[in-house]
Amino acid sequence: MSLAAGATAAQPVTGRDDTVRAAETLDIGVLTAKAQAGDAEAQLRLADDYFSGNGVDQNYGMALLWYEKAALQGNVVAQTELGVLYCKGLGVALDYDKALYWTRMAADQNYADALYNLGVAYDYGLGVPRDIPTAFAWYLKAADRGNDIAQFNAGSMYENGEGAAQDYAQALAWYARSADQGYAPAQYNLGILYLDGKGVTVDTARGLTLVELAAKQGFALAQDRMAGAYYAGSGVPVDKVRAYAWALLAAYGGDRNAETLLNQMDVSQDLSEAQYVEASKLAESLLPPAV
After folding, report:
1. How far is CA 124 from CA 59, 85, 137, in A?
2. Distance (Å, rounded) from C-alpha 176 to C-alpha 158?
3. Is the pLDDT of residue 9 over 90?
4. pLDDT of residue 287
5. With left for phi above 0 and alpha for psi between -120 and 50, is residue 127 left, alpha or beta?
6. How far apart are CA 75 and CA 38, in angstroms?
7. Closest Cα partner for 92 from 80, 82, 78?
8. What pLDDT digit, counting tens, does each position of 224-257 carry?
9. Do 227 and 258 contact (CB within 8 A), yes or no?
């Protein structure tokens, strides 16, 4: 599937984001004392702080040390994060065998992020032979346990018949579950299914609503689609100012189709000077909120 049609599956091995890590932080002195006393949860949280540089200087080596202490006590989150560090070579030499060891330990306890990361390992051939059906199976397990990216990947693989028989109804269902969690690529791909009538009756209004949700999160493919819709009057009234605004955002995100549309509109002089200013201001208003 071309990227112009939909976002594709397969995302990098991932741990929790820094906003989650920072939200769990106590006073560093208190946290360190509890971690040194053997409290696994404190060890995990202290590792998070070293990983993200929250309250301490960022230090992947120290993050590794404290994740390992918590992991040895059976903490599934720490086991998964430890696997990520070994997989990416952060604070330690890259070692897929150790990455898989810790990831499998957490996956055996049905921890969704670890199940997802095993899917990535088989998807990319990281320490194991590349095996797309096996990757799909792990993604599906993670998706069942609520991992939004795994749900998206399952949907994409069902849509494209990769690792599983092509099934638009299943693609729709998994995209919907991921989109409900706010995952922009899933919102976009679900919108495209409604626009194209794959696995569902064509519903242009619903499709564009979903695409716009993704666009407002900064997803360039969705921004480009909105630009094209307003330029051509496809499902919405023609609005060259709004088309230019969405194209500006998509081009800024690296979308080449949007760059082409901007050039076309410039050459055709579709906007007046006042409308260029209006489009620029609109684009600024459509930017996703700063984190």
Report:
1. 28, 17, 14
2. 13
3. no
4. 86
5. left
6. 12
7. 82
8. 999 999 999 999 999 999 999 999 999 999 999 9
9. yes
